[in-house]
Specification:
Blueprint (H helix, E strand, L loop, with lengths): L3 H27 L4 E7 L18 H8 L2 E7 L5 H10 L3 H4 L17 H6 L1 H10 L9 H9 L2 E6 L13 E2 L24 H12 L4 E6 L11 H8 L5 H26 L6 E7 L22 H4 E7 L7 E3 L4 E2 L3 H8 L16 H6 L3 E6 L13 E8 L2 E6 L10 E4 L15 H14 L6
Parallel strand pairs: 1-5, 1-6, 2-8, 2-9, 3-4, 3-5
Antiparallel strand pairs: 2-7, 6-7, 10-11, 11-12, 12-13
Helix pairs in contact: 9-10
Length: 451
Amino acid sequence: MICLSCWNRLLLLLAVITATIGAQTTALAADPPPNIVLIISDDQAWNDYSFMGHEHIQTPRLDQLARESLTFTRGYVPDSLCRPSLTTIISGLYPHQHGIVGNDPPPPEDLAKASKAVQRKDPRYLQRRIDYINHIDSAPRLAEILHRERGYLSHQSGKWWEGNFSRGGFTHGMTHGDRRRGGRHGDLGLKIGREGMKPVFDFIDMAVKQEKPFFVYYAPFLPHTPHTPPKRLLAKYEKQTPHLPLAKYWAMCEWFDETVGQLLDRLDEQKLADNTIVLYVVDNGWINLPQRSGYAKRSKRSQYDGGVRTPIMVRWPGKVKPRQDDVHLASSIDLVPTVLAAVGLKPTPDMQGVNLLDQQAVEKREAIFGEILEHDIQHMTDPVASLRFRWVISGPWKLIVPHASRMPNAAVELFNVVNDPFEKQDLSGQHPALVKQLTAKLDQWWDVSGK
């Protein structure tokens, strides 16, 4: 039997515990959910920033963002092609999971040998473009989850392939997505940045007025071609290289940097920065050719780091300690799980990414993976048909394995990307056991053998 005094002390202790828990719960409930701003560069190499060591390109606002963020310099996207990569960024799934494995669907069989111009005019090909957008409907969509579960307003601007912005779960946006009116990969949304920031700023002002948390998807057509920078920036870089195409691209990178600064300044002006998570990533890499405004073979669409590597940043003042991580790996599949964790939600079961703000999870990760796909989709529902390469990075080692049916003459390659970041020396012949070990990891991640 418990004595009366002991019982009274127990009741008092329980009351204190209950009051403490209640106060903590009330405090958590009182905290407004953070706003989310996702910034996506379009066609920019991982080292084309001042803070990443470029000798000529000046990116003062992105340098500042990197200093204020948890910045992973060893960040990656699974594929070096924009449409699959962008869908990964907003879904948290690999391309073979969400099903969008290229930019444009295959034409009907009787049009396969026709020119692109003939294909695009055929109404059946247009219908295939429309049908292929259906993949986005079955994928997790960050904007839709935030709106449904936490009441967020969201805005799409810039590059967007999946029809109208509403197909991505956005409550507001710029892209109409009507394929009959040129809605291929962004249409009106591609004006953002190049023609000012007003649509995004107006959306932020509206969300603030309605006292709603907001999600901004800012994916401008920058520094993507056409490389048409302001004359003042082009004149600056023309003095630094005899190659006009390089000067144009470098100027485009700084132009993009300026628009990022305008967006961040708007958050400061509205006193929103302290409760806003800013994330940064590039959809795929780009190494500009000196002779023309085109990309080198080992960049966009390639299996090399020039195509798939990107800095990844997360800024959340007062919640995330700024530091630069040059050791651990990050992937664009991590962005959705990171945001969901920040707003108190769990990732869906098929998401394989980690919360980048969970240091233990980041350090525990053994490998990241990727898949390089054809530009033109080879099959409407089978992702393996479009596969060119799979790759895996574990520690300093990167293994690239060609898919034999599409790349029968390509060789397996192994690089130490810490010592050899530009992948000049293939070490596969020197480390056969490591090749076997990493190949097994790839097969465990995505077995494409058909067995």
